[in-house]
């Protein structure tokens, strides 16, 4: 089995989203790595459209929930409903029990709602009272967020950010891509797009994930992954500017994510083993939301991606 098995899925995404290759690759890598994706970008950049197109091409239940300041944790998890005819409480499942959950504008809801996602994303289960409920085996959260500079947004808690396997930044399209977007919109006005007739089954997805997990990762590259993450916590060993810019580094979840996502990246490239460039390709999306910069870095106009670019240049490749 090779990446051609995902060709129908890629083709379907191409009919709904123009450009955004890096964003689409991040969705596929998270899908193959059994992880969750945080998608950041300004309004109108097809974030929601891309997630809905992905859900259409995969077998499973899909649910979209719009995060708002008045949302409650029970709106995500579900709640106990009293049944008079039975004289007992019955649990009514919330949106978290679907296979694919689109958490739209996730950073417009307050912290107590954000925390409702923690157990679900980390352990594929939720606890209500004294009862724990297992979520579906295939469970994926794709959350969109607007930049925190926009009105009505909240900073996501660091604990929740760490649950996301990757963060994809969606940028404006270039001129040619925007012309294609106009043509696509005109075509869709005349004929509505239809979902694929043969979506990727969950059985096929689980088989692909097993194959991805078996891809060879040399022990030296494990050391390289750990060196990258350790360098984000102890940048003074590499560069004085890195030390000034970084307040907190990445957690051990980042090391696990780098190994898993590098395997997925190599599999999508039809490679039989992981190479250093696969790790470097996925590192920015895995580390950018796990690193907290200092006020000094922000004052100098240094972004997290600037920090990571310098970090990748400093850490030696085996």
UniProtKB/TrEMBL annotation:
Domain of life: Bacteria
Family: Belongs to the MoxR family.
Lineage, opening ranks: Bacteria, Pseudomonadati, Pseudomonadota, Gammaproteobacteria, Chromatiales
One Pfam family of this chain: AAA_3
UniProt name for this protein: AAA family ATPase
GO MF: ATP binding; ATP hydrolysis activity
CDD domains for this protein: AAA
This protein's UniProt keywords: ATP-binding, Nucleotide-binding
Domain ChlI/MoxR AAA lid, first and last residues per copy: 247-309
This protein's record includes keyword Nucleotide-binding: yes
Source organism of the structure: Candidatus Thiodiazotropha endoloripes
Gene3D superfamilies reported in the protein's UniProt record: Magnesium chelatase subunit I, C-Terminal domain, P-loop containing nucleotide triphosphate hydrolases
Domain ATPase AAA-3: 36-166
PANTHER family in the cross-refs: MAGNESIUM-CHELATASE SUBUNIT CHLD, MOXR FAMILY PROTEIN
Keyword DNA-binding: no
């Amino acid at each position: 089995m090779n990446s051609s098995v995902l060709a129908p899925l890629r083709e379907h995404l191409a009919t709904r989203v123009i450009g955004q290759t890096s964003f689409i690759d991040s969705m596929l890598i998270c899908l193959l790595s059994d992880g969750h994706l945080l998608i950041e970008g300004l309004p109108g950049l097809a974030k929601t459209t891309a997630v809905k197109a992905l859900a259409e091409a995969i077998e499973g239940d899909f649910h979209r929930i719009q995060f708002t300041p008045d949302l409650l944790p029970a709106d995500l998890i579900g709640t106990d409903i009293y049944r008079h005819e039975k004289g007992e409480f019955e649990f009514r499942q919330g949106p978290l029990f679907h296979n694919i959950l689109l958490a739209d504008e996730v950073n417009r809801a307050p912290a107590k709602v954000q925390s409702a996602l923690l157990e679900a994303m980390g352990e594929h289960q939720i606890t209500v009272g004294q009862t724990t409920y297992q979520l579906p085996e295939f469970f994926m959260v794709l959350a969109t967020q607007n930049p925190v500079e926009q009105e009505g947004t909240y900073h996501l808690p660091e604990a929740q950010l760490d649950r996301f396997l990757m963060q994809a930044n969606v940028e404006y399209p270039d001129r040619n891509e925007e012309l294609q977007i106009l043509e696509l919109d005109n075509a869709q006005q005349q004929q509505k797009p239809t979902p694929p007739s043969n979506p990727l089954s969950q059985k096929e997805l689980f088989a692909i994930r097993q194959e991805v997990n078996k891809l060879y990762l040399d022990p030296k590259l494990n050391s390289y992954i750990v060196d990258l993450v350790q360098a984000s916590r102890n940048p003074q060993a590499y560069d004085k500017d890195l030390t000034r810019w970084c307040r907190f580094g990445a957690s051990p979840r980042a090391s696990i994510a780098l190994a898993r996502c590098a395997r997925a990246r190599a599999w999508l490239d039809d490679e039989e083993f992981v190479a250093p460039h696969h790790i470097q390709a996925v590192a920015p999306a895995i580390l950018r939301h796990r690193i907290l910069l200092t006020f000094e870095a922000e004052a100098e106009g240094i972004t997290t991606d600037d920090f990571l670019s310098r970090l990748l240049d400093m850490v030696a490749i085996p």
